[in-house]
Amino acid sequence: MVITSRQEGKAKAPAAPPREVTKLQELVYELKIDQVMTQSVITVSPEDSMRDLKEVLRLNRISGTPVLRHGELAGIISIEDVIKALEAGEIDATVGEKMTTSIQTVFADETIIQAVNKFGRFGFGRLLVVNRQGELVGVLTQGDIVRGLLRRLEIDYHEEEIHRYRASHIFEDIVSDQTGLILRYKVQAQDFARCGEAASKLKRALERLGAMPAVVRRIAVASYEAETNLVIHAINGGEVIAEIQPERIRITAIDSGPGIPDVEKALQPGYSTAPDWIRELGFGAGMGLNNVRACADEMHLESKVGVGTRLEITIKL
């Protein structure tokens, strides 16, 4: 794989070959949290006793639940808290005394990868799901993610059977010296609710063109990361352009945003210029360009402060 970062003529040395991306890894970038979360949420109040909570958990066969005070999210309580209360002889204490008030939430319209990152970062058994108004709309466990992924795998298998031959021979049937297809997708700045739509549309197009599934998965991850960078950093939005030819696809993400002051530093794992509020949303972890680099056969990054950024990704078909 060739990787170059152009800033005052600098270039990086060749890196490792592109990684393989599994179907499950692809789906965590595509599926939204509200597609897999548990929508019917059992809740308790801070005034309930731990004894009452124990019965709620037992009867509903759950291991934890949100705590609401006058309809607003106040905390979260789990079976581990019940066990600790039993051991301490405090089973008649109130939920409000034992609940955890430091709550990690995810947005219902975020992709699963945001939740996966938080599960890995904090080690929680469940995450509370809220809408953009901050209202509780669901609960997400790692089990919910697994079940949602398995359901989607089954659905995708049947859809693939239907669409497999519709456009798989498009390049063979068109006679020309060089045949290509260009797909363009507009990306709005800070529109996190629609972040990932361009990557999903490109993925579906490639599947119907008959591209190899393993290659499509790499393209899906790389284009998602490129699109996310536009959503986070581009002041006026940007565009993802996919140029498809029989032997390769080139994805270009262009914006007229603020530009990258230090391209070399931006390519370092974990480095991010995203503000804190973006990080609170689960974005801007500083791994986007590294994920692109891991999936690409070639990656070129050009940026000029005050002008904009151009990211080119080439993946061989």
Describe the secondary structure blueprint for this structure.
Blueprint: E1 2-6, H1 23-30, H2 50-60, E2 64-69, E3 72-78, H3 79-87, H4 95-98, E4 105-107, H5 112-122, E5 126-130, E6 136-141, H6 142-163, H7 170-173, E7 181-187, H8 197-208, H9 213-233, E8 238-245, E9 248-255, H10 263-266, H11 276-280, H12 288-295, E10 298-304, E11 308-316
Parallel strand pairs: 1-10, 4-5
Antiparallel strand pairs: 2-3, 5-6, 7-8, 8-9, 9-11, 10-11
Helix pairs in contact: 1-9, 8-9, 9-12
Walk me through this protein's architecture.
- With 317 residues, this protein is of the alpha+beta class.
- The chain is 38% helix and 22% strand.
- The protein has helices at residues 23-30, 50-60, 79-87, 95-98, 112-122, 142-163, 170-173, 197-208, 213-233, 263-266, 276-280, 288-295; strands spanning 2-6, 64-69, 72-78, 105-107, 126-130, 136-141, 181-187, 238-245, 248-255, 298-304, 308-316.
- Strand 8 (238-245) and strand 9 form a beta hairpin.
- It is elongated, with a radius of gyration of 23 Å.
- The protein starts with a strand and ends with a strand.
- Residues 5-13 have low confidence and may be disordered.
| Side-by-side strand order of the widest sheet | 1-10-11-9-8-7
The tally of beta strands, per DSSP, is 11
Mean pLDDT: 83
Classified by CATH, the class of the largest domain is Alpha Beta
> Nearest-angstrom radius of gyration?
23 Å
